[in-house]
Design goal:
Heat Shock Protein 90; 5-stranded antiparallel beta sheet; globular
C-alpha cells in the first residue's frame, strides 16, 4: 500500500493540472489565464444560472408590460465652496405610495449626491497667477418605472480648469486638452414594492437558467457588433449589477471601463421579447403610487399615467420607399442572419400593397401631394401584422364632404411562414360574436350575426391589444380574452 501512495499522489496532481487547464482560457489558448477584476467585479465568478423571482401560478407569457409616466418634481441644489460650484438635481419621489419605500429611495439618492459632493470637494482646484479658475460640477438623478421596477439614473460630471482673457476679451483656456474632468452615467434598479436594490438575477424566474440565455446573446453581440474584443466572452459575473431596464422594451447589460473584454465601456441591448419567457414582467400596480401622483398635476400639468410597452420584435424592419410617380413600395427584412425565410410574407406584402395602389381611393389621393399610403405594419414577438390603407376626402361643388377609402390586411406567423386567419387565432366563433355584440349594445341596437364558419379565411390583424378584422365592410375589434394564448410563441 505504501508503494502505491506516491503513484496516487502523482495521478491526483496530473488530474488537478488537467482540470485547471480547462478553465478560463486566454485568447492565446494559455491555460489558467485569470480574468482581471475591475470596479469591484470579479469576472472569474460567473453567475450560477438560475434566477430568483417566483413564477406566479397560472403564468402566461407576456406580450406587453406596463410603464408609468411619472409626474415630475425636483429639488434644485446650487452649492458653492470656495472656487467650486456644484449644481445638483434631486428628484422628489412624492409619487411613491409606500412611505417607507419612498424614504429608502430618497435616502439612496441623497447618499449618491453626498458621495459626489465629497469626491468633487476632495479634488485639488487649479489655481494659477493671473488666471481665472473655472471649477464646475453637475449631478442629476432621474427615475423611471417599468413593470414593478424603478430605475434610478444617476449622472455626474465635473470640469476644472483655468483661463485668461486675451487683448480682445476672448476667453483662452489653459491646457484645453487636459482639464481635470470626469463623467459617470450609472443605473440602479430597485423593487418598487420593497425599495430593495436588485441584482440581475432578481429579474428572472427561479426555474429559468437566465445566465445561459443571456450569455449566448451577449457572446453573439460581442462577436458580431464589437470590433477588437480582447478575449471570448466567458459569462456574466455573479451578482451582476451593471444593467438597466429601458422604457423602450430592452434590458441593457453594460460592461464598465477596465473590463476584460472591451477596450472601453460597452452596452449590449437585449430586446425583452427575446427573454419574455424567463423575465419577471407584469402590469404595473397602480396601488403602488400615491394619491397625489394620481390627482395632483406637477409643474408641467402632468399626473401619473400608465401605458403599455409592447414587446416589438426589433430584428425585423419594414423598408418603405416612395417612387417618382408617388407610389410606394414596402418590403420586410431581418437583421438576424438566422431569421426564417420571408419570401412568402413579402409576396403577400407586395400583393396587398399593389392592390391598395390600384384602388380608386389611391388614384384620387395621389393627385394631392399631402396624401400618402398608411402603413400600419409591425412585428410583435412572432406575429407579422400587415395593414395598408388609403383615405381620400374632399368637398364637392355644393360643399358636401365626399370621401373614398380602401385597405387590406394580413397576419403571418414567423415560425411557420404561413398566414393566419381569424379562425386560427380566436378561442371560438361563439365567444367572438358574443364579445362584439356586447360591445355594440353599448352604443347602438345593431347586432352581429354572421353565418357559421365566417372566420375561416377571413384576414385579421393580431396585436398586443387584441385582434381586428373587417367583415361585410364593417370594422370589428376583439380584446385579448377572445385570442388563443398559443398564437404568441417565441421565434425559432
Amino acid at each position: 500500500m505504501k508503494k502505491l501512495i506516491p503513484l496516487i499522489v502523482l495521478i491526483l496532481c496530473v488530474c488537478l493540472l488537467c482540470s485547471c487547464s480547462l478553465t478560463q482560457p486566454g485568447t492565446d489558448g494559455t491555460a489558467g489565464a485569470r480574468l482581471p477584476s475591475s470596479e469591484g467585479i470579479d469576472w472569474n465568478k460567473t453567475a450560477s444560472g438560475k434566477g430568483k423571482a417566483a413564477r406566479p401560478a397560472g403564468f402566461e407569457l407576456p406580450i406587453s408590460f406596463t410603464s408609468a409616466s411619472l409626474p415630475y418634481k425636483t429639488h434644485n441644489i446650487e452649492y458653492h465652496y470656495d472656487d467650486v460650484k456644484i449644481n445638483a438635481y434631486m428628484p422628489d419621489l412624492f409619487y411613491i405610495g409606500d412611505e417607507a419605500v419612498r424614504e429608502k429611495l430618497t435616502s439612496f439618492c441623497k447618499g449618491m449626491l453626498n458621495d459626489f459632493f465629497d469626491e468633487v470637494l476632495a479634488l485639488e482646484v487649479p489655481n494659477k497667477p493671473d488666471r481665472v479658475t473655472s471649477a464646475e460640477a453637475y449631478a442629476s438623478c432621474y427615475t423611471d418605472v417599468l413593470s414593478d421596477y424603478i430605475v434610478i439614473n444617476f449622472t455626474t460630471s465635473y470640469y476644472f480648469t483655468t483661463y485668461r482673457y486675451d487683448e480682445n476679451g476672448n476667453t483662452v483656456y489653459d491646457d484645453p486638452d487636459e482639464p481635470l474632468s470626469g463623467y459617470t452615467d450609472d443605473y440602479f434598479v430597485f423593487d418598487l414594492r420593497t425599495g430593495e436594490r436588485l441584482m440581475l438575477a432578481d429579474l428572472f424566474y427561479s426555474d429559468a437558467d437566465y445566465a445561459e440565455r443571456l450569455n449566448t446573446i451577449i457572446a453573439k453581440d460581442l462577436d458580431e457588433e464589437y470590433d477588437g474584443i480582447k478575449r471570448p466572452f466567458e459569462g456574466i459575473p455573479e451578482n451582476y449589477e451593471n444593467f438597466r431596464l429601458s422604457s423602450g422594451g430592452g434590458l441593457d447589460i453594460t460592461f464598465p471601463d477596465e473590463n476584460p473584454y472591451t477596450e472601453y465601456s460597452y452596452t449590449v441591448s437585449i430586446p425583452l421579447w427575446k427573454i419574455r419567457d424567463i423575465i419577471a414582467l407584469k402590469p404595473t400596480d397602480e396601488a403602488l403610487f400615491s394619491e397625489e401622483a394620481k390627482t395632483s398635476p406637477d409643474q408641467y400639468g402632468d399626473t401619473l399615467k400608465l401605458y403599455d410597452v409592447y414587446l416589438d420584435n426589433s430584428d425585423y424592419i419594414f423598408d418603405i420607399e416612395t417612387l417618382e410617380n408617388g407610389d410606394t413600395t414596402i418590403k420586410l427584412r431581418s437583421t438576424d442572419p438566422d431569421a426564417p425565410d420571408l419570401t412568402e410574407i413579402n409576396e403577400t406584402l407586395k400583393k396587398i400593397n399593389d392592390d391598395v395602389l390600384a384602388s380608386d381611393a389611391w388614384q384620387k389621393a395621389k393627385k394631392d401631394e399631402y396624401n400618402e399610403v398608411n402603413y400600419d405594419c409591425s412585428v410583435t414577438v412572432n406575429l407579422v401584422n400587415i395593414n395598408i390603407s388609403v383615405y381620400y376626402g374632399t368637398y364637392d361643388d355644393e360643399g358636401n364632404w365626399q370621401y373614398d377609402d380602401y385597405g387590406s390586411r394580413a397576419c403571418y406567423d414567423l415560425n411557420t411562414g404561413k398566414q393566419l386567419f381569424l379562425s386560427d387565432v380566436i378561442t371560438s366563433e361563439a365567444e367572438a360574436v358574443s364579445y362584439i355584440n356586447g360591445d355594440l349594445a353599448a352604443d347602438s341596437e345593431d347586432t352581429f350575426a354572421p353565418p357559421a364558419n365566417f372566420s375561416a379565411g377571413l384576414p385579421v390583424n393580431v396585436g398586443t391589444y387584441g385582434a381586428s378584422f373587417i367583415y361585410d365592410g364593417e370594422y370589428y375589434y376583439l380584446d385579448l380574452s377572445c385570442i388563443k394564448p398559443t398564437v404568441w410563441s417565441d421565434t425559432k
